[in-house]
Amino acid sequence: MTKQLFAILLLFLFTHVVHADESDILEKVESSARSWLGFVDREQYQESWENSSPLLRAKTPEATWIKSMTTLRSSRGAINTRFIATAGATKSLSGFPDGDYVVLQFYTTFAGKGLILETVTLAKAPDGTWQVCDYAIK
């Protein structure tokens, strides 16, 4: 009986530690995404490019990024609200090398265009930080 109780206790503790670790990662990823989105929300597109992952910067030249972001975001008006809708982790993404990625989707409302879905993909950098490597709006 004592061994069974001990095994259950270990299982509970292990599950709690794994859950806490996942929650901590999600907090770090969401914080990184929201910080980066702050540049985009303030129309600081050059800064958003400079503060993105080397993967994004290698894929999209700075001038192309700024032009594309200006087109995507300028007509939408001021942001009203942003709520996280989904989060998923993966080791591989089309167009990127294998690694640690988290894809966050946000429901976002804007003064000029109503509700949209923003997808922010982050890659884990060698120093353990999470950096945006892709951004899309639907």
UniProtKB/TrEMBL annotation:
InterPro entries, per the entry: DUF4019 (IPR025091)
Signal peptide: 1-20
UniProt KW Signal keyword: yes
Keywords tagged on the record: Signal
UniProt keyword annotation of Signal present: yes
Record-linked Pfam families: DUF4019 (PF13211)
Protein name listed in UniProt: Uncharacterized protein DUF4019
Organism encoding this protein: Nitrosomonas ureae
